[in-house]
Write a structure and sequence with these properties.
Chain lengths: 284, 236
């Protein structure tokens, strides 16, 4: 080979390498999802995504699917990598388990159904696929899930302390003095895309957006629902206080829970001692 | 041994004192930002849903997205070096951002990536601080009355709108820049960028409603160059 030819072939080889680097897809880590023994692959998630998800979430994951304009709340925009239901602190990416749970649970009061009809393998493939829509999955790792200590037994003291916290942290400004979702700021709330959004109304007794258990409730206000007006209270509440707030919040729902039984028994004789919750109230 | 140690201290001290004399000449760019065109309407903010904040303002507060002053000057314009930065030391002083009287003070805060940011709540009630970041991570935290400041910083350059969901009239900006050389125009529309070594710079002015404008400025030595900007105001 003449020196010039050799040099030319070297250049073209380099060019080929560069070209390959340019079109090489994201590192494997962002293309996979892991939950328990399941491993999801983004490539396998594309077909079920196109069939079941793209109608609302859009082919590009940008929440611009053909149905999106008709539904409210709007579908999640995966290009932003901002998710409401997480076990991780506000501002961090959710875990694969969080996303898998969301696909399985669906979101009550929205158009997102529980996708229990899909096989676990299909669901984990979908999780891997939606992680390809934002570059954040390649540059950042999911946050560390918050620690939730064992739940103490609900007592009237914990409920009353939770009620004080509901007043002091001003949960009532959106969720209303009685938890009816009618606080003074409720009607002007907008999400991060400036779309109107309603606070949860405890009076409906419905499931929460991110689960049904007391642990889920704890997690909701400690991590916040990113992309929505619901902030994280993790810096403001000790674990003991957070459980007290959980116990009080349960009394706002018209459900036969242990907390509401304790509450109603106490309120029957002591109700008159309570200060109202709200702008004038002391919350106790 | 003690003598040697003292001598060492003396040498170090001398070097420390002498150091500034050898710093290269640094220039400055200063100027004024004005507007032409039609301003958007300035509206009075209705804070009646938060009585605490109504009482903090003897005169009604108006919207801050287009604050102008005498001689068509524009306040809250971020002026920064967008090209030609010669790797100056990172800004390490803490940027303070207050929530007071249901307003963000300052309305626009400019900072460098990784520069410490402290967010305070000086109001006798709760706020939730919600930076709507897209490139950086969006977060949303509650900060009740008396809560300690939130200490944070940003990893990527970005113009981040900030809002409080509880008080929807509260709007502000974190302007996160790659450069440590930035300034926000004052009530007379004036700014100055200091500590610029000789070189050719692109200076950019950004306003949340009136857009972005750039111009080239060359600094030759210890001199002050003027860079004025005329932004086009739009009513909508």
């Amino acid at each position: 080979m003449k020196p010039q030819t050799r040099w030319m072939s070297l250049v073209s080889a380099c060019g080929a390498v560069l070209l390959l680097a340019g079109v090489t897809p994201a590192p494997a880590a962002a293309q996979e999802a892991h939950v328990g023994a399941l491993t999801g692959h983004a490539a396998a998630g594309k077909a079920p995504y196109t069939r079941y998800c793209a109608g609302c979430h859009g082919d590009d994951g940008d929440a611009q699917g053909e149905n999106a304009q008709w539904i409210d709340p709007k579908p999640r925009d995966f290009t932003l990598a901002t998710f409401k239901c997480r076990s991780t602190p506000s501002g961090s990416l959710p875990t694969d388990q969080d996303l898998y749970n969301s696909v399985e649970r669906g979101f009550v009061t929205t158009n997102m159904p529980p996708w229990v009809a899909l096989t676990p393998q299909n669901r984990i493939n979908l999780v891997a696929y939606i992680k390809t829509f934002s570059p954040r999955w390649r540059t950042a790792k999911p946050g560390t899930p918050i620690t939730i200590p064992a739940e103490p037994t609900a007592t009237i003291q914990s409920i009353l302390h939770g009620r004080q916290l509901y007043q002091r942290l001003e949960c009532w400004k959106c969720h209303g003095p009685a938890g009816h979702g009618d606080g003074p700021s409720a009607h002007e709330l907008t999400d991060s895309k400036d779309d109107p959004i309603r606070p949860y109304n405890f009076q409906t007794g419905s499931r929460f957006m991110c689960g049904t258990t007391n642990q889920d409730l704890y997690r909701i206000f400690m991590t916040g629902l990113d992309g929505s007006p619901m902030p994280s209270f993790a810096d403001q509440l000790s674990p003991a206080e957070a459980w007290d707030l959980v116990h009080f919040l349960r009394t706002l729902q018209p459900l036969k829970t242990r907390e509401s039984a304790i509450w109603h028994e106490w309120a029957a004789t002591h109700g008159a001692e309570l200060k109202p919750i709200g702008p004038e109230g002391g919350g106790q | 041994m003690i003598v040697r140690f003292t001598a060492l201290i003396a040498v170090v001290a001398t070097a420390t004192i002498a150091a500034p004399r050898h710093q290269p000449a640094a220039g400055m760019i200063s100027g004024k930002v004005t507007y032409t065109g039609t301003l958007p309407k300035v509206r009075t903010i209705d804070m009646s849903k938060e009585p605490n904040c109504v009482t903090q303002h003897p005169t009604p507060v108006t919207t801050q997205d287009a604050v102008t002053g005498p001689g068509n000057s524009v306040r809250y314009v971020v002026v920064y070096i967008s090209a030609g930065d010669q790797g100056a030391p990172a800004a390490t002083d803490t940027v303070h951002y207050d929530q007071k009287g249901c307003l963000y003070i300052p309305h626009v805060a400019a900072m460098q990536v990784h520069q410490p940011l402290e967010i305070f709540n000086d109001d006798p009630h709760s706020h939730n601080i919600h930076p709507l970041a897209r490139v950086n991570a969006e977060w949303n935290k509650s900060q009740p009355k008396g809560a300690p400041p939130i200490r944070t910083s940003w990893d990527q350059p970005e113009f981040i709108p900030v809002k409080c969901n509880v008080h929807p009239w509260m709007h502000g900006y974190f302007v996160v820049l790659a450069t440590p050389h930035s300034a926000v125009t004052d009530s007379t529309g004036e700014f100055s960028l200091t500590g610029l070594p000789p070189g050719k710079y692109t200076v950019t002015a950004w306003h949340e409603r009136f857009g972005t404008q750039s111009q080239e400025v060359t600094i030759g030595g210890s001199e002050t160059k003027t860079a004025n900007f005329v932004l086009t105001a739009r009513p909508y």
